[in-house]
Design goal:
Length: 442
């Protein structure tokens, strides 16, 4: 799976210029683009999507301006007039949207429904204010998001799904902030996933669903511990987040092997962002002081942390076992490293230095694997990511010497040796590829 999959819109634009310059025929260009799940017409669809997006933002600003105008003279308007006006505005905008959608003016209908969704939310909030209904204000946001959800299913619109999921995510935050658990949040994630997996494609919504699910699961753990939304993100939540990340990475590799080009794209973008998050997390854990937040003990949280990482790692290995060594081997190494490190610091005392050293070794191994993967698959993204990992690790250890000066010097020497060997291996491979191309041309 190449990173060019993420830039297929740009590839479609380039292919149109190839056809225009008569470098390839239109049939050949479409055959090339079909490998990446796109076609020459996708460039035109991008232009129309830009118009659609600008119109949607225009509808949003009109709705916000209308709310401000009404709010300016709000107290002077009779209560009955205010209520009836809000209800009428919501009914009319949604009725126009549904009528245009059913008459096959799909995008115009969705824009009207988007405007109607904003009117619906404003009506909930303002009518509640007029009649002093309810003291738990997150309920208004919840019913706003819930009211849009049927329209998401009916229209299969990504714009309405983004509005519904965005409101649900706001409700997730404010509901937990009021010391209540947002138990129904997965309903909104499930509907959004159904839409983008089976009806329409959206990398942004897919990543939003993944992030939202991870946040919701962390909140669930906090509530199980009796802390509500007050939790220590490192000492209490990090092990669960790492376990979830391992499992999602296995799912991402499975998606990358799918026959569906959109699913492959979802898997690739998820894998790339998880890789970046893993690098940042390991760089943080490479400091001894971070591990000191885990106090030794036999409480149930430490046991659950280790078990969750181990189970998630095994499931991830099962999911990506058919994807090659660059999928299964890193998962096995990270699972073993995390299990060992968290067992060490939560079950024994004064061994944080060993966990920090293990983290630095893990970073070196990750850098080596990324460099090797970039060379073997001729993908510079992974090659340079591996080099950056090694350089950042060496840079951090220069200011935070683990194992005193001798240990830091040894780490620098190991990193230097890896970089030099990688450079020679890369040069040799490029020479072999050039030689093969020369033989083929003859």
């Amino acid at each position: 799976m190449r990173l060019i999959q993420l830039f297929k819109k740009e590839l479609s634009h380039e292919a149109r210029s190839w056809v225009r310059d008569e470098l390839v025929s239109e049939e050949q260009a479409n055959s090339i683009l079909a490998r990446y799940g796109t076609s020459l017409t996708d460039d035109t669809e991008t232009n129309s999507f830009g118009y659609y997006l600008l119109m949607s933002l225009g509808a949003l600003f009109i709705g916000l301006a209308l709310i401000l105008i009404v709010s300016h003279n709000w107290d002077e308007i009779p209560r009955a007039v205010r209520t009836s006006s809000l209800l009428l505005l919501t009914l009319v905008t949604n009725a126009i949207g549904i009528k245009r959608f059913l008459s096959e003016r799909t995008r115009a209908g969705i824009i009207w429904l988007f405007f109607g969704g904003i009117s619906y939310g404003a009506s909930i909030m303002l009518i509640a204010q007029i009649y002093h209904l309810g003291e738990h204000f997150p309920d208004g946001i919840f019913w706003w998001a819930m009211g849009i959800l049927p329209l998401v299913i009916f229209t299969q619109s990504r714009l309405l799904a983004a509005l519904s999921l965005g409101l649900a995510s706001i409700w997730l935050g404010v509901e937990s902030g009021e010391d209540f658990f947002p138990a129904l949040y997965p309903l909104f994630v499930s509907v959004t996933l159904w839409l983008i997996l089976f009806q329409a494609r959206s990398r942004l919504l897919f990543i939003a669903c993944v992030v939202g699910t991870m946040v919701w699961m962390n909140l669930g753990l906090a509530w199980m511990m009796g802390n509500g939304h007050h939790f220590d993100p490192v000492a209490e939540q990090l092990p669960l987040s790492l376990a979830i990340g391992l499992f999602i990475n296995g799912v991402a590799w499975r998606l990358m092997r799918s026959d569906n080009s959109d699913w492959r794209e979802y898997g690739l973008v998820t894998h790339i962002w998880l890789l970046r998050a893993a690098i940042v997390t390991l760089l943080g854990l490479s400091f001894e002081g971070v591990w000191q937040g885990y106090t030794p003990g036999s409480d149930w949280l430490s046991v659950v942390s280790v078990i969750s990482i181990l189970v998630a790692g095994v499931l991830a290995i099962v999911l990506c076992r058919e994807s090659g060594r660059y999928a299964s081997w890193p998962v096995m190494m990270v699972t073993g490293y995390l299990t060992f490190s968290f067992m060490l610091v939560t079950w024994f005392g004064h061994l944080e230095i060993i966990a920090a050293i293990a983290t630095n070794l893990m970073l070196l191994l990750m850098g080596i694997l990324l460099i090797r993967r970039g060379i073997d698959q001729s993908e510079t993204h992974y090659f340079y990511t591996g080099i950056v990992v090694l350089l950042l690790t060496a840079f951090l250890r220069y200011f935070d010497l683990i194992g005193d000066y001798i240990g830091g010097a040894l780490l620098f020497l190991v990193a230097a040796g890896i970089l030099m060997v990688a450079a020679k291996y890369w040069k040799r491979r490029v020479s072999l590829i050039s030689l093969k191309r020369g033989e083929n041309s003859e």
